[in-house]
Design goal:
Elements: E1 5-9, H1 14-29, E2 33-34, E3 43-48, H2 50-59, E4 67-72, E5 83-84, H3 88-96, E6 101-112, E7 116-120, E8 123-127, E9 134-140, E10 143-156, H4 164-167, E11 179-187, E12 200-203, E13 207-212, E14 221-224, E15 227-228, E16 236-250, H5 256-264
Parallel strand pairs: 1-2, 1-3, 3-4, 4-5, 4-16
Antiparallel strand pairs: 6-7, 6-16, 8-10, 8-14, 9-10, 9-13, 10-11, 11-12, 13-16, 14-15
The structure holds NADP nicotinamide-adenine-dinucleotide phosphate (NAP) and manganese (II) ion.
Length: 265
């Protein structure tokens, strides 16, 4: 397969335009066509950090027929950014390689009140927007698993396991395992309220349903990756792994665990 139409996603301020300009020239020199409409692209390159990569994937609609690549401007490589902006030789090497290896990342599908559905690459998060505790009934498939009372929950993909999920002591999950990890945000546990307390991992094919108890605190803050959901009131959220996978460039000496080591150890 030849992928030659390249779309760059980045901030448009003058500093970034100058940095990106060099990459535009480089790509053209190697025979790529730079397109202004991402729908015409078969390679989408974000320039920034992991947050920019998440936005690039979201704004271009989680395309399965595209290869995504992240170029870091932050001085270090990160989980989604395999190239550093100053390391053009590595980019040239990847561009010149016809048989490029592809890495696939699972994504999650979220359905709110049986209506709107959304994709997430990192996680879906839901939390109380007020000081009062927030209550949800938690179902795994059709099983009523627990009644949660506390601040909220995070449902993370494997690649999202190193982000918000990690900050609440969730496990790091190899993206070769298609699954979802559910983690609590400050659950209340006493003789009246009981939750599992630890994170749990659901295999692909399972679904997690959260039913928000309509007790007045039913306008939680919900987020998909780095974007807030504009839906205000909610009763039911369903989360499952989606059939869609995000493809990125696989480079040598850059396995998921090498990235984890490089980022955290
Ligand atoms: P941000 O608030 O600037 O991001 C927080 C940090 O998370 C940034 O350093 C970001 O990297 C990093 N990050 C993003 N995705 C990651 C991943 N998959 N693995 C490891 N680190 C990751 O917002 P943002 O840059 O737009 O990123 C959005 C993400 O922030 C959300 O999806 C959520 O996971 C995370 N978040 C974390 C907390 C927390 O830990 N308490 C709270 C809210 C949100 P870059 O600097 O390279 O962008
Ligand atoms: Mn960021």
């Amino acid at each position: 397969m030849t992928r030659r139409n390249l779309y760059f996603y980045h901030k448009k301020d003058s500093e970034m335009m100058e940095k990106a300009g060099h990459l535009y020239e480089l790509a053209e020199k190697y025979g790529f066509t730079i397109v202004n409409d991402f729908k015409q692209a078969n390679i989408i390159v974000s320039i920034g950090g992991d947050g920019t990569f998440l936005q690039a994937v979201r704004k271009t609609g989680f395309r399965e027929d595209c290869l995504y690549a992240g170029i870091s401007t932050t001085g270090t490589l990160s989980m989604y950014c395999d190239f550093h902006i100053d390391d053009t030789s590595k980019m040239v090497e990847a561009m010149a390689n016809e048989q490029i290896e592809v890495r696939r990342y699972p994504t999650m599908e979220i359905k709110v009140d049986d209506e709107s559905s959304f994709y997430c690459l990192n996680e879906f998060s839901i939390r109380s927007a007020i000081i009062k505790t927030f209550v949800m009934d938690v179902f795994i498939d059709n099983l009523h698993f627990e009644t949660f009372r506390g601040d909220g929950m995070i449902v993370a993909t494997p690649t999202g396991s190193t982000a918000y999920n990690k900050s609440v002591n969730g496990a790091i999950v190899d993206p070769m395992l298609p699954c979802l990890q559910v983690s609590e945000l400050a659950s209340l546990n006493n003789n009246r309220y009981r939750t599992l307390g630890s994170s749990f991992i659901l295999s692909s094919g399972r679904s997690l349903t959260l039913r928000v108890i309509q007790d007045g605190n039913d306008h939680p803050t919900m987020g998909m990756d780095n974007e807030a959901l504009s839906i205000q009131h909610v009763e039911k959220i369903e989360a499952k792994l989606s059939g869609k996978q995000i493809k990125t460039v696989k480079l040598k000496d850059n396995s998921f665990w090498e990235k984890v080591k490089r980022s955290f150890l």
